[in-house]
Fold this sequence. Notes:
Layout: H1 3-15, H2 20-34, H3 38-51, H4 60-74
Helix pairs in contact: 1-2
Amino acid sequence: MRDAELRAYQRLAQGKGMVLSEWVRQSLRESARAEPSPGREKKIASLRAALRHSFPAPDIDQMLEEISAGYLQGTGR
């Protein structure tokens, strides 16, 4: 890092009432939060791939009835 760059960062930190080391820590934390997590991109890609397919699905009321019937069969009723 050049001296002029270091002095510019020191002025920025002083302008916020901080020492340079704290300004650097906060800047790094903010930068890290702004980056998407690797898992997020993979999840989005998976969702996009799934949305390219079309699968038949019954009406929601029919699905709920079938689920309830399955629970009732499992209880011996």
